[in-house]
Amino acid sequence: MPTRKLLIATRNRGKIDEILFALRDSLFEVVGLDEVGVPSDFEVEEPAMTMEGNAIIKAMTYGRKAGCLTLAEDAGLEVDALDGRPGVLSARYGPGTDEDRYRQILSEMEAVPADKRGAQFRAVIAIYDPRTEKLRTCEGIYRGVIVLEPIGENGFGYDPIFYNVERNKTNAQMTKEEKNSVSHRGMALRKAKIILAEEFYE
Ligand code: IMP
Question: Which domains does the chain have, with CATH numbers?
Answer without folding.
Answer: 5-200 (3.90.950.10)
